Known about the structure:
By secondary structure, the chain is an alpha/beta fold. The protein folds into two domains: 2-145 and 293-311, Rossmann fold (3-Layer(aba) Sandwich); 147-291 and 333-340, Response regulator (Rossmann fold, 3-Layer(aba) Sandwich), CATH 3.40.50.2300. Helices cover 42% and strands 19% of the residues. The protein has helices spanning 2-8, 46-63, 80-92, 108-117, 131-134, 147-164, 166-169, 189-204, 221-235, 247-260, 275-282, 294-309; strands at 34-40, 69-75, 97-100, 122-125, 140-144, 176-183, 208-216, 241-244, 267-272, 288-291, 324-326, 330-333. A six-stranded parallel β-sheet has the order 2-1-3-4-5-11, with helices on both faces. Helix 2 links the parallel strand 1 (34-40) and strand 2 (69-75). Helix 2 (46-63) packs across helix 12 (294-309), helix 6 (147-164) runs parallel beside helix 8 and helix 9 crosses helix 10. The chain is elongated, with a radius of gyration of 21 Å. The two termini are 14 Å apart.
Amino acid sequence: xxxxxxxxxxxxxxxxxxxxxxxxxxxxxxxxxxxxxxxxxxxxxxxxxxxxxxxxxxxxxxxxxxxxxxxxxxxxxxxxxxxxxxxxxxxxxxxxxxxxxxxxxxxxxxxxxxxxxxxxxxxxxxxxxxxxxxxxxxxxxxxxxxxxxxxxxxxxxxxxxxxxxxxxxxxxxxxxxxxxxxxxxxxxxxxxxxxxxxxxxxxxxxxxxxxxxxxxxxxxxxxxxxxxxxxxxxxxxxxxxxxxxxxxxxxxxxxxxxxxxxxxxxxxxxxxxxxxxxxxxxxxxxxxxxxxxxxxxxxxxxxxxxxxxxxxxxxxxxxxxxxxxxxxxxxxxxxxxxxxxx
Length: 342
Protein backbone atom coordinates (compact mmCIF):
# COMPACT_ATOMS: atom_id res chain seq x y z
CA UNK A 1 0.00 0.00 0.00
CA UNK A 2 2.86 2.34 0.84
CA UNK A 3 4.32 1.93 -2.65
CA UNK A 4 0.95 2.79 -4.13
CA UNK A 5 0.89 6.04 -2.17
CA UNK A 6 4.38 6.86 -3.40
CA UNK A 7 3.36 6.32 -7.01
CA UNK A 8 0.19 8.33 -6.67
CA UNK A 9 1.60 11.22 -4.71
CA UNK A 10 5.19 11.33 -5.92
CA UNK A 11 4.97 14.98 -6.88
CA UNK A 12 4.77 17.71 -4.26
CA UNK A 13 1.22 18.45 -3.07
CA UNK A 14 1.32 22.03 -4.34
CA UNK A 15 2.03 20.78 -7.83
CA UNK A 16 0.03 17.55 -7.70
CA UNK A 17 -0.24 14.82 -10.25
CA UNK A 18 -1.06 15.42 -13.85
CA UNK A 19 -1.46 13.36 -16.93
CA UNK A 20 -1.19 15.11 -20.25
CA UNK A 21 -1.03 13.85 -23.78
CA UNK A 22 0.38 16.15 -26.47
CA UNK A 23 -1.46 16.63 -29.73
CA UNK A 24 -0.89 14.05 -32.42
CA UNK A 25 -1.90 16.59 -35.01
CA UNK A 26 -2.08 20.20 -33.89
CA UNK A 27 -4.54 21.14 -36.58
CA UNK A 28 -7.04 18.55 -35.37
CA UNK A 29 -7.54 19.93 -31.85
CA UNK A 30 -6.97 23.10 -29.83
CA UNK A 31 -3.64 23.86 -28.19
CA UNK A 32 -5.25 24.61 -24.85
CA UNK A 33 -5.68 21.62 -22.55
CA UNK A 34 -8.77 20.95 -20.51
CA UNK A 35 -7.46 21.45 -16.98
CA UNK A 36 -9.19 19.57 -14.18
CA UNK A 37 -8.06 20.45 -10.65
CA UNK A 38 -8.75 17.90 -7.93
CA UNK A 39 -8.20 18.43 -4.21
CA UNK A 40 -8.72 15.53 -1.78
CA UNK A 41 -9.07 15.60 1.98
CA UNK A 42 -6.31 13.08 2.79
CA UNK A 43 -4.04 11.04 0.54
CA UNK A 44 -3.75 7.98 2.80
CA UNK A 45 -7.47 7.19 2.83
CA UNK A 46 -7.67 3.79 1.12
CA UNK A 47 -10.94 4.48 -0.70
CA UNK A 48 -9.91 7.95 -1.90
CA UNK A 49 -6.57 6.55 -3.03
CA UNK A 50 -8.37 3.93 -5.11
CA UNK A 51 -10.73 6.53 -6.59
CA UNK A 52 -7.82 8.80 -7.56
CA UNK A 53 -6.03 5.92 -9.29
CA UNK A 54 -9.19 5.18 -11.27
CA UNK A 55 -9.57 8.86 -12.11
CA UNK A 56 -6.02 9.00 -13.45
CA UNK A 57 -6.52 5.92 -15.59
CA UNK A 58 -9.75 7.27 -17.07
CA UNK A 59 -8.09 10.60 -17.89
CA UNK A 60 -5.15 8.86 -19.56
CA UNK A 61 -7.46 6.73 -21.69
CA UNK A 62 -9.45 9.80 -22.72
CA UNK A 63 -6.26 11.67 -23.59
CA UNK A 64 -5.27 8.97 -26.09
CA UNK A 65 -7.88 10.25 -28.51
CA UNK A 66 -8.46 13.71 -29.89
CA UNK A 67 -8.23 15.25 -26.45
CA UNK A 68 -5.71 17.28 -24.52
CA UNK A 69 -6.29 16.83 -20.80
CA UNK A 70 -4.42 17.90 -17.69
CA UNK A 71 -5.48 16.27 -14.43
CA UNK A 72 -3.91 17.72 -11.29
CA UNK A 73 -4.56 15.96 -7.96
CA UNK A 74 -3.41 17.59 -4.71
CA UNK A 75 -3.56 16.51 -1.08
CA UNK A 76 -5.44 18.65 1.46
CA UNK A 77 -3.59 16.88 4.30
CA UNK A 78 -6.72 16.95 6.50
CA UNK A 79 -6.47 20.76 6.65
CA UNK A 80 -9.30 22.93 5.34
CA UNK A 81 -6.92 25.88 5.30
CA UNK A 82 -4.53 23.99 3.02
CA UNK A 83 -7.42 22.90 0.82
CA UNK A 84 -8.71 26.47 0.56
CA UNK A 85 -5.26 27.54 -0.65
CA UNK A 86 -5.31 24.78 -3.27
CA UNK A 87 -8.74 25.88 -4.47
CA UNK A 88 -7.50 29.47 -4.76
CA UNK A 89 -4.53 28.25 -6.78
CA UNK A 90 -6.72 26.34 -9.23
CA UNK A 91 -8.99 29.37 -9.60
CA UNK A 92 -6.11 31.80 -10.18
CA UNK A 93 -4.52 29.53 -12.78
CA UNK A 94 -7.63 29.31 -14.91
CA UNK A 95 -8.50 25.65 -14.56
CA UNK A 96 -11.53 24.43 -16.49
CA UNK A 97 -13.21 22.56 -13.63
CA UNK A 98 -12.68 22.22 -9.90
CA UNK A 99 -13.24 18.86 -8.16
CA UNK A 100 -13.33 18.85 -4.36
CA UNK A 101 -13.28 16.07 -1.77
CA UNK A 102 -13.96 18.32 1.21
CA UNK A 103 -11.91 18.28 4.38
CA UNK A 104 -14.77 20.07 6.14
CA UNK A 105 -18.19 19.89 4.50
CA UNK A 106 -19.16 23.24 6.06
CA UNK A 107 -16.55 24.90 3.81
CA UNK A 108 -18.57 24.12 0.68
CA UNK A 109 -20.46 27.44 0.64
CA UNK A 110 -17.22 29.44 0.59
CA UNK A 111 -15.75 27.30 -2.20
CA UNK A 112 -18.93 27.52 -4.27
CA UNK A 113 -18.98 31.30 -3.84
CA UNK A 114 -15.41 31.58 -5.12
CA UNK A 115 -16.06 29.21 -8.03
CA UNK A 116 -19.20 31.10 -9.01
CA UNK A 117 -17.35 34.41 -9.10
CA UNK A 118 -14.71 32.81 -11.34
CA UNK A 119 -17.41 31.03 -13.39
CA UNK A 120 -15.61 27.74 -12.77
CA UNK A 121 -17.86 24.66 -12.40
CA UNK A 122 -17.28 22.69 -9.22
CA UNK A 123 -17.83 18.97 -8.64
CA UNK A 124 -17.80 17.78 -5.04
CA UNK A 125 -17.29 14.08 -4.42
CA UNK A 126 -17.34 11.52 -1.60
CA UNK A 127 -18.03 14.13 1.10
CA UNK A 128 -21.43 15.63 0.43
CA UNK A 129 -22.12 19.33 1.05
CA UNK A 130 -25.41 20.31 2.64
CA UNK A 131 -28.19 20.73 0.09
CA UNK A 132 -28.60 24.47 0.65
CA UNK A 133 -24.95 25.04 -0.27
CA UNK A 134 -25.06 22.94 -3.42
CA UNK A 135 -28.11 24.82 -4.65
CA UNK A 136 -26.27 28.14 -4.45
CA UNK A 137 -25.15 27.72 -8.05
CA UNK A 138 -26.38 25.80 -11.05
CA UNK A 139 -22.82 24.68 -11.88
CA UNK A 140 -22.22 23.00 -8.51
CA UNK A 141 -22.60 19.21 -8.39
CA UNK A 142 -22.03 16.22 -6.15
CA UNK A 143 -20.93 12.70 -7.12
CA UNK A 144 -21.00 9.97 -4.51
CA UNK A 145 -23.15 7.27 -3.00
CA UNK A 146 -26.20 7.21 -0.76
CA UNK A 147 -24.73 6.70 2.70
CA UNK A 148 -28.09 5.58 4.09
CA UNK A 149 -28.05 2.68 1.63
CA UNK A 150 -24.66 1.50 2.92
CA UNK A 151 -25.97 1.46 6.48
CA UNK A 152 -29.03 -0.47 5.37
CA UNK A 153 -26.79 -3.04 3.67
CA UNK A 154 -24.79 -3.48 6.87
CA UNK A 155 -27.99 -4.14 8.77
CA UNK A 156 -29.12 -6.55 6.08
CA UNK A 157 -25.87 -8.52 6.31
CA UNK A 158 -26.35 -9.00 10.05
CA UNK A 159 -30.06 -9.81 9.65
CA UNK A 160 -29.38 -12.39 6.94
CA UNK A 161 -26.77 -14.13 9.08
CA UNK A 162 -29.14 -14.10 12.06
CA UNK A 163 -32.00 -15.48 9.99
CA UNK A 164 -29.82 -18.31 8.70
CA UNK A 165 -28.44 -19.17 12.14
CA UNK A 166 -29.51 -17.03 15.13
CA UNK A 167 -26.70 -18.39 17.31
CA UNK A 168 -24.09 -17.12 14.84
CA UNK A 169 -25.00 -13.58 15.92
CA UNK A 170 -26.93 -13.82 19.21
CA UNK A 171 -24.30 -15.92 20.89
CA UNK A 172 -25.52 -15.49 24.45
CA UNK A 173 -29.06 -16.43 23.42
CA UNK A 174 -30.80 -13.54 25.18
CA UNK A 175 -32.84 -12.56 22.13
CA UNK A 176 -30.93 -9.30 21.64
CA UNK A 177 -27.95 -8.32 19.51
CA UNK A 178 -25.40 -6.53 21.67
CA UNK A 179 -23.35 -4.25 19.43
CA UNK A 180 -20.72 -1.53 19.36
CA UNK A 181 -20.42 1.16 16.72
CA UNK A 182 -17.14 2.57 15.36
CA UNK A 183 -17.97 5.86 13.68
CA UNK A 184 -15.88 7.60 11.07
CA UNK A 185 -15.90 11.22 12.09
CA UNK A 186 -17.95 13.45 14.35
CA UNK A 187 -20.56 15.36 12.35
CA UNK A 188 -19.67 13.69 9.04
CA UNK A 189 -22.85 13.03 7.08
CA UNK A 190 -21.83 9.59 5.84
CA UNK A 191 -20.88 8.53 9.35
CA UNK A 192 -24.18 9.75 10.77
CA UNK A 193 -26.28 8.06 8.10
CA UNK A 194 -24.40 4.75 8.14
CA UNK A 195 -24.69 4.65 11.91
CA UNK A 196 -28.40 5.44 11.89
CA UNK A 197 -29.57 3.23 9.04
CA UNK A 198 -27.65 0.09 9.98
CA UNK A 199 -29.50 -0.13 13.29
CA UNK A 200 -32.76 1.18 11.87
CA UNK A 201 -32.83 -1.73 9.42
CA UNK A 202 -32.37 -4.29 12.20
CA UNK A 203 -35.14 -2.76 14.30
CA UNK A 204 -37.52 -2.59 11.32
CA UNK A 205 -36.72 -6.24 10.64
CA UNK A 206 -38.06 -7.11 14.07
CA UNK A 207 -34.73 -7.78 15.77
CA UNK A 208 -33.98 -6.48 19.23
CA UNK A 209 -30.71 -4.64 19.70
CA UNK A 210 -28.71 -3.26 22.60
CA UNK A 211 -25.97 -0.71 22.08
CA UNK A 212 -23.04 -1.30 24.39
CA UNK A 213 -20.94 1.62 23.16
CA UNK A 214 -20.05 3.86 20.26
CA UNK A 215 -16.72 5.47 19.52
CA UNK A 216 -15.12 7.67 16.88
CA UNK A 217 -12.05 6.38 15.04
CA UNK A 218 -11.81 8.96 12.21
CA UNK A 219 -11.92 6.34 9.43
CA UNK A 220 -8.49 5.03 10.48
CA UNK A 221 -7.40 1.47 11.14
CA UNK A 222 -4.97 2.23 13.95
CA UNK A 223 -7.46 4.36 15.86
CA UNK A 224 -10.14 1.70 15.45
CA UNK A 225 -7.80 -0.99 16.77
CA UNK A 226 -7.06 1.11 19.84
CA UNK A 227 -10.74 1.89 20.47
CA UNK A 228 -11.78 -1.73 19.95
CA UNK A 229 -9.11 -2.95 22.36
CA UNK A 230 -10.57 -0.65 25.00
CA UNK A 231 -14.08 -1.96 24.29
CA UNK A 232 -12.93 -5.57 24.57
CA UNK A 233 -11.34 -4.83 27.94
CA UNK A 234 -14.60 -3.23 29.03
CA UNK A 235 -17.15 -5.67 27.62
CA UNK A 236 -15.17 -8.85 27.04
CA UNK A 237 -17.16 -11.29 24.91
CA UNK A 238 -20.50 -9.53 25.39
CA UNK A 239 -20.14 -7.76 22.04
CA UNK A 240 -21.92 -9.75 19.33
CA UNK A 241 -21.67 -7.32 16.41
CA UNK A 242 -19.29 -4.53 15.47
CA UNK A 243 -20.61 -1.95 13.00
CA UNK A 244 -17.85 0.07 11.36
CA UNK A 245 -18.45 3.08 9.11
CA UNK A 246 -15.69 1.90 6.73
CA UNK A 247 -13.49 -1.10 6.03
CA UNK A 248 -10.34 0.48 7.44
CA UNK A 249 -11.96 0.72 10.86
CA UNK A 250 -13.40 -2.78 10.46
CA UNK A 251 -9.87 -4.04 9.84
CA UNK A 252 -8.68 -2.19 12.93
CA UNK A 253 -11.43 -3.82 14.97
CA UNK A 254 -10.39 -7.21 13.59
CA UNK A 255 -6.76 -6.49 14.54
CA UNK A 256 -7.86 -5.86 18.13
CA UNK A 257 -10.12 -8.92 18.23
CA UNK A 258 -7.33 -11.13 16.89
CA UNK A 259 -4.86 -9.69 19.39
CA UNK A 260 -7.25 -10.21 22.31
CA UNK A 261 -7.63 -13.92 21.52
CA UNK A 262 -11.24 -13.95 22.71
CA UNK A 263 -13.01 -17.18 21.79
CA UNK A 264 -16.42 -15.83 20.79
CA UNK A 265 -15.56 -13.31 18.12
CA UNK A 266 -18.22 -10.75 17.21
CA UNK A 267 -19.50 -10.33 13.65
CA UNK A 268 -17.78 -7.35 12.00
CA UNK A 269 -19.24 -5.37 9.10
CA UNK A 270 -17.70 -2.50 7.15
CA UNK A 271 -18.23 -0.19 4.19
CA UNK A 272 -16.17 0.33 1.00
CA UNK A 273 -15.24 -3.11 -0.26
CA UNK A 274 -11.50 -2.41 -0.31
CA UNK A 275 -9.19 -5.23 -1.33
CA UNK A 276 -8.02 -5.60 2.27
CA UNK A 277 -11.63 -5.70 3.40
CA UNK A 278 -12.48 -8.36 0.83
CA UNK A 279 -9.47 -10.41 1.94
CA UNK A 280 -10.81 -10.28 5.50
CA UNK A 281 -14.17 -11.56 4.28
CA UNK A 282 -12.47 -14.42 2.43
CA UNK A 283 -10.61 -15.33 5.62
CA UNK A 284 -13.85 -15.32 7.61
CA UNK A 285 -12.74 -12.42 9.80
CA UNK A 286 -15.28 -9.93 8.44
CA UNK A 287 -18.90 -10.92 7.89
CA UNK A 288 -19.47 -8.51 5.03
CA UNK A 289 -19.28 -4.98 3.68
CA UNK A 290 -21.12 -2.51 1.48
CA UNK A 291 -19.15 -2.04 -1.73
CA UNK A 292 -18.51 1.62 -2.49
CA UNK A 293 -17.86 1.59 -6.24
CA UNK A 294 -14.78 3.82 -6.62
CA UNK A 295 -14.36 3.09 -10.33
CA UNK A 296 -17.93 4.05 -11.24
CA UNK A 297 -17.70 7.17 -9.10
CA UNK A 298 -14.42 8.15 -10.76
CA UNK A 299 -16.01 7.64 -14.17
CA UNK A 300 -18.99 9.82 -13.23
CA UNK A 301 -16.70 12.53 -11.80
CA UNK A 302 -14.55 12.58 -14.92
CA UNK A 303 -17.40 12.49 -17.45
CA UNK A 304 -19.25 15.28 -15.65
CA UNK A 305 -16.06 17.36 -15.35
CA UNK A 306 -15.15 16.75 -18.98
CA UNK A 307 -18.55 17.90 -20.23
CA UNK A 308 -18.49 20.94 -17.95
CA UNK A 309 -14.98 21.86 -19.10
CA UNK A 310 -16.14 21.85 -22.72
CA UNK A 311 -19.23 23.87 -21.92
CA UNK A 312 -21.55 21.00 -22.81
CA UNK A 313 -25.11 20.90 -21.53
CA UNK A 314 -25.39 18.27 -18.81
CA UNK A 315 -27.91 15.51 -19.48
CA UNK A 316 -30.54 16.07 -16.78
CA UNK A 317 -31.56 12.40 -16.94
CA UNK A 318 -28.22 11.52 -15.31
CA UNK A 319 -28.82 13.89 -12.40
CA UNK A 320 -30.98 13.66 -9.32
CA UNK A 321 -32.53 17.01 -8.38
CA UNK A 322 -30.33 18.77 -10.99
CA UNK A 323 -27.19 18.50 -8.84
CA UNK A 324 -26.55 14.90 -7.75
CA UNK A 325 -25.15 11.70 -9.20
CA UNK A 326 -25.40 8.72 -6.85
CA UNK A 327 -23.69 5.38 -7.50
CA UNK A 328 -25.44 2.45 -5.77
CA UNK A 329 -23.71 0.36 -3.11
CA UNK A 330 -23.50 -3.42 -3.45
CA UNK A 331 -23.51 -6.07 -0.74
CA UNK A 332 -20.38 -8.21 -0.37
CA UNK A 333 -20.34 -11.38 1.74
CA UNK A 334 -18.46 -14.68 1.58
CA UNK A 335 -20.98 -15.82 -1.04
CA UNK A 336 -19.85 -13.32 -3.68
CA UNK A 337 -16.56 -11.82 -2.46
CA UNK A 338 -14.45 -13.42 -5.21
CA UNK A 339 -16.24 -11.23 -7.73
CA UNK A 340 -14.74 -8.15 -6.06
CA UNK A 341 -11.19 -9.37 -5.51
CA UNK A 342 -8.71 -7.96 -8.02
